Each structure stands twice: as structure tokens, then as C-alpha cells.
């Protein structure tokens, strides 16, 4: 059981790196409009596919974890989602007030904030359960 948990965890890390290796260049290429429109659509879809595979591998990794590690991951996702929802609500309300800075809080930045919030939840939950 320990071996399969380690393999599943390594697979999810590998696919997370593959996702990052497709997302970052795609963002750069699309931001600087280096390619024509039909190719840009394909470039925009590739990170979504790699992220989907990463999520599937992550879910498989969760299924072989023990109950405490599953609880840590679940709490990390819940905390991350809650913080992301609060940030989106705050940004919406600030936009209604006419106070908005898309340079710091654009759609592209929300991905980074989601990951940061997940890791905040992960650290809090790991400390809570002593894992």
C-alpha cells in the first residue's frame, strides 16, 4: 500500500510539472500575441488538457492515501476554495466601487492565488493533524 501511495503521489507531481510546463509558455505566447488566432486557440486548450490529466492523477493519489492524509487534502481544498471565493467577491465589490487593479487581480492572476490559497490550507491542515 505504501508503494502505490508513493507512486500515485509522484505521478501527480510529474503531471503538475507538465501542467506548469504547458501553462507558463502558453500564457507568455498568448500574452505577447506571437501566433495567429487558430494556433492560439490550440495553445490555449493544451494547458486545460494537461490540467485535467493532473487533476485525475491527483484524485487517484487521494484514493490511496490513508484517512488522515485524505482529510488534510480535503481541508486544504476547502480552505483554498473558501479564500478564493472571498477574493472573487471582494474583487467584484471593489469593481462596483470603481476600485480595481487588473494588473494585480486579473483572471490570469487568480490561478496563482488559487494555488497559494490551497497551500495555505494545506499547511494549516497539516499542522492541525500533525502529519
Please render the helix and strand layout as text:
Blueprint: H1 2-31, H2 37-63, H3 67-96, H4 102-105, H5 107-129
Helix pairs in contact: 1-2, 3-5
Transmembrane segments: 12-29, 41-62, 74-94, 106-125
Keywords: Membrane, Transmembrane, Transmembrane helix
Summarize the structure.
The chain is mainly α.
How many helices does DSSP assign?
Answer: 5
- Our Rg estimate from Cα atoms comes to 18 Å
Cα separation of the termini: 18 Å
Estimated helix fraction: over 70%
Keywords: Membrane, Transmembrane, Transmembrane helix
Transmembrane segments: 12-29, 41-62, 74-94, 106-125
What can you see in these coordinates?
The longest helix has 30 residues, at 2-31. Helix content is 87%, strand content 0%. The chain has helices at 2-31, 37-63, 67-96, 102-105, 107-129. Helix 1 (2-31) runs antiparallel to helix 2 (37-63) and helix 3 runs antiparallel to helix 5. The protein has two domains: 1-65; 66-131. The protein contains five helices and no strands. The protein is flat, with a radius of gyration of 18 Å. It has 131 residues and is mostly helical.
